[in-house]
Amino acid sequence: MASYLQIADDEKGHDLDLFCVPRHYESDLDKVIIPHGLIMDRTERLARDIIQDMGGHHIVALCVLKGGYKFFADLLDYIKVLNHNSDKSVPLTVDFIRVKSYCNDKSTNSVRVIGGDELSNLAGKDIVETGRTMQTLLSRLSECNPKMVKVVSLLVKRTPRSSGYRPDYIGFEVPDAFLVGYALDYNEYFRDLSHICILNDQAKEKYKV
Ligand code: IMP
Ligand code: MG
């Protein structure tokens, strides 16, 4: 079973005043739940675990856009550093796929997959809530008969809506709240926020479509 850093349900988070948050979002957020530095530290360790497990296999790293782009880029940067500085190194190519299923803070019933023309054996993902998006994507990937598929997700939500699906590598397990920042969005807003934060109810109304 993948190990992860658990953020407890009663986690109070950190006051926004303690960190730098864009002015245009200050009134939309309650607390910083995962500061950017902690995301980076955990991602560095995931990179090490992945390289250790992959042996010398060639990795096609598949980024699940848009929410996964920050995590993907940072994870690959750490993998590159390991490749530069250790005896063992892993050849890496990249590909990108776009998946869309959310409107406001709710899953819609359709999961749209756009792009991605190569087989993949490593998919980098922002967050798994019910697991439906990832399961849809995995069944699409299996049509390409990849040798191996490993899923790395920065976040997994503890929610009764979960299908039971668990990624191979997990950064953090988080409470059942709507999170934004570090490329996670609410109707396309908040991707330009470095920390992972809880959105307040006012903001859910303000940015509703
Ligand atoms: P699932 O299919 O229910 O696992 O949902 C996964 C997708 O829903 C993610 O890739 C996100 O796009 C979106 N999502 C789920 N929870 C959140 C959240 O808390 N913040 C932002 N996006 C979320
Ligand atoms: Mg989204």
CATH domain class name: Alpha Beta
Shape: globular
How can the largest sheet be summarized?
A: 7 strands, mixed
Number of strands: 10
Rounded average pLDDT: 90
Work out the strand percent. 25-35%
Keywords:
alpha/beta, 30% strand, binds inosinic acid, 209 residues, Rossmann fold, 7-stranded mixed β-sheet, globular, 4 helices
Describe this structure in words.
It is a single chain. This protein starts with a strand and ends with a helix. It has one domain (5-207): 3-Layer(aba) Sandwich (Rossmann fold), CATH 3.40.50. The protein contains 4 helices and 10 strands, in the order E-E-H-E-H-E-E-E-H-E-E-E-E-H. The strands form 2 sheets. Strands 1-8-7-6-3-4-5 form a 7-stranded mixed sheet, sandwiched between helices. With 209 residues, it is α/β, with parallel strands linked by helices. Inosinic acid is lined by residues 67, 101-102, 107, 126-133, 178-180, 184. Residues 38-186 form the Phosphoribosyltransferase domain. This is Hypoxanthine phosphoribosyltransferase. It holds the Pfam family Pribosyltran.
